[in-house]
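Hi everyone,

Forwarding the result from last night's run.
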Amino acid sequence: MVKLKRIYEKIEKGDGFRVLVDRLWPRGMSKETARVDLWLKEIAPSNELRKWFGHELGKQEEFVRRYQQELEDKQELTRELKKLAQDHKSLTLLYSAKDREHNQAVVLAKLLVKKS
């Protein structure tokens, strides 16, 4: 099972294995408070794509296309996430974006579920 959660949300037992999928560490969040099992920043969008997108909704469709393209070159990392999801009852992808529907974790989760 793959779940999505803002890193600023309360930690719950059902989170299972917690993976931060942001390239940058979330502002104002200590590592102790975050309780992240793995920070997989390499799977996050490139700095260039992240800066270009800037969470502008008008760019969402193109962002998804470009990020999916980047993920094609990161298949080893997506396989690692799929294995973690299989090894643990639950895998939670953590992100810091305020928009819960338009961010890289949503794109990544769809890819992981689709390829399962």
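DSSP finds five helices and four strands in the chain.

Cheers,
N.
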